Amino acid sequence: MSTLLAVLFLVAFFMIVLPLITWLRMGEDAAPRFEPFDANKYPNPPEVAAFLRDNVAGLEGAQFRQVADLARTSGGLFLLVTRVVLLEHSEGETATIAMMYSEKTGAALPMVEFTAELPDGRMLDVNNSVTIPIFAPRPGREVYRFPEVRDPLRLHKIYRVLFRRQFGSSTLRQRDIASDPARFLAEVMDAEHRAQMEAGYYRFDERARRWRPTLRGAFVMTWRMLPPLKQIIKAGVRSRARRALREIAMDGPDARPVAAVTTVTLPAGTTSQDMRPRQSLLEIAFAIVFVALLCAGVIFVSRWTHSPTAGVAVLLLLGPLGLWLWVRWSAVARAQKTGGDPMAIARARSAANRGALPLVGMGVLLVSLMGYREYQTHLPNLIVPADFDGAVTTLGQLTGHEVTKLEGRDRVYVVRVRTRWANRYLGAAVPKFAAQGFFMSRFDRSFRALRRDTSTVRLVLVPVIDPFAVVSHIGTQGERDGKATEDIVSGLRALNAAYPFELWNAGENWVRGAFTSPPSDLAAVIRRLDALCPRLLADDFRSDRARLERELGRAGVFICHWS
After folding, report:
1. Would you state the pLDDT for residue 299?
2. Edge-first strand listing for the sheet containing 510-515
3. What is the Cβ-side half-sphere exposure of residue 160, based on CA atoms within 13 angstroms?
């Protein structure tokens, strides 16, 4: 059950909680502010500088002209810096060289893209982005991705061939970039988000002036970035790219490739690094005290309730709550430290508030699963009376079904339950009935059920605990094989004397037992079992003694039946 719990938690976290976090926390500013790159304000890692320089140099040789070098910093967990170089061609083509990297982790995402727009609004984009496409396709816009093409000149030639194949000699719309490159780039990004809003992936938050994902968009975009969909999509992109290159006879290696930058080295002492708020001693002290109190609370509740599950429940409920309070207080404090305006402080508080739902929801989900496990394992509220009549009544209340007396037997009762629920009652209730001297087990020889199985199985309750007395009370149908119940009981006693076992289940025509230790002589055990219940070897194992010996040696469990 613990393995199942872990699997359910992982599935729920990655498939449900992560999309919810994306839905609540993710967002992009409308009309994002780009400004000319300033090396005194933004870090300029050598890998970024070399990537931009080499690509610009290659495209300038193809009659492109650089019109802007812009940068923008996005707050959040990873402190993203976006650097964009825009180039124009005399024929109306636009080239974009972009690099997005994290000031915190150094991870980077490079891209070179060529864009053509026709007067009727149709567009063609050709890029070498290595990221997974998570946005919905836009009507009238054709996008080709060639992540394995790192030569900008070759990528430009591929773009021109694809353009002629799709649009012929159409005239391009002349886009005014040089007059206000920052505004142009902001309008391009807003247009993309408007298209995603029409596709149902995004919505516009008027109050915050931000583009936020819809619930559907958050789930779809997050799932596309998770295995195995990520690997499937990536393989599909590369396969389509290779097929397109073969169709236009441009497959092969790059002549002058520019290496794709995936990590950057951040220089120490940059302005952005210096402006980053640092952890205060008060924050660290608060975190230590909270963790200490939380651990003490877990230990106290576990000992007070005598249930480790209750202690873990405290951790799962109060842990996310404390984390949310700390994040909220810390985010607001940092916004105030950096001289944030009221809007920035409100955004920090709002972001922390939106993060509360998935954290608390995850805690509630885990506590619910652990509570179900506790119920299934222990049934803490189940009290079995010492008198057998009261135990029979308790069995009926436990299962919610009528308990009936087994016909022809004295003080032997059965109750019918769903097959897929039988293990719940047996695993949780058998020890408590056994503590009062009563034997409870399966009565019908049916062990497994499919998920939607509606079949039923009977459980039996006997007023004795001695296994051989149980078999005598229930009786057998050994007469069909020429064996009286007394003979079977004698045979089981002899087997137990030589090779001790526990009686797990008993019915009218079968018993199931498990050896307390591996038998020293399996061949002798098989001879005894064959004499006691010939159907075990003849029918169940088709007279294959070697197979029966392997099974007994592996599991140590046997089932004797007489019909």
Report:
1. 74
2. 501-506, 510-515, 557-561
3. 10
pLDDT by residue (tens digit) across 441-474? 999 887 665 555 667 889 999 999 999 999 999 9
**Is residue 319 over pLDDT 70?**
no
Angle at 37 between CA 149 and CA 189, to 5 degrees: 60
Is-above-0.85 flag for pTM? no
Range list of H helices, 355-482? 356-378, 388-399, 422-435, 467-474
Please report which confidence band the pLDDT of residue 290 belongs to, taking 50, 70 and 90 as the band edges.
low
pLDDT mean across residues, the chain:
83
Query: For residue 262, what is the DSSP state?
Result: -
- HSE-up of 440 (CA within 13 Å, CB side)? 28
CA 455/CA 449 separation, integer angstroms: 8
Q: Stretch 369-393: mean pLDDT, rounded?
A: 73
Q: Output the six-digit token pair for 421.
A: 């629920």
User: Residue 417: its pLDDT value, please?
Assistant: 83
- CB under 8 A, 24+ apart: contacts of 154-157: 154/250, 154/254, 154/255, 155/112, 155/114, 155/126, 155/127, 155/128, 156/59, 156/62, 156/95, 156/114, 157/250
Which range has the worst mean pLDDT, 224-228, 372-376, 475-479, 480-484? 372-376
Structure tokens at 199: 């596709």
| 3-state SS class at 146 | coil
CA-closest candidate to residue 146, choices 114, 188, 182: 114
62 or 276, which is more confident? 62
> Beta partners for 559?
512
What is the Rg, in whole angstroms, of the alpha carbon atoms belonging to the chain?
Answer: 36
Separation in Å, CA 475 to CA 271, 305, 407, 409, 513: 87, 43, 11, 8, 16
Local confidence band at 278 (pLDDT 50, 70, 90 cut-offs): very low
Question: For 517, phi and psi rounded to 5 degrees?
Answer: -150, 155
Residues 500 and 518: beta-carbon distance below 8 Å: no
Strand-pair partners of 456 = 418
* Cα–Cα distance measured from residue 146 to residue 144, given in angstroms and rounded to the nearest whole number: 7
Under 8 Å between Cβ of 218 and 202: no
The secondary structure of 151-196 as a DSSP string is -HHHHHHHHHHHHHHHHTTPPPP----TT-HHHHHHHHHHHHHHHH
DSSP structural state of residue 42? S
Single-letter amino acid, residue 130: V
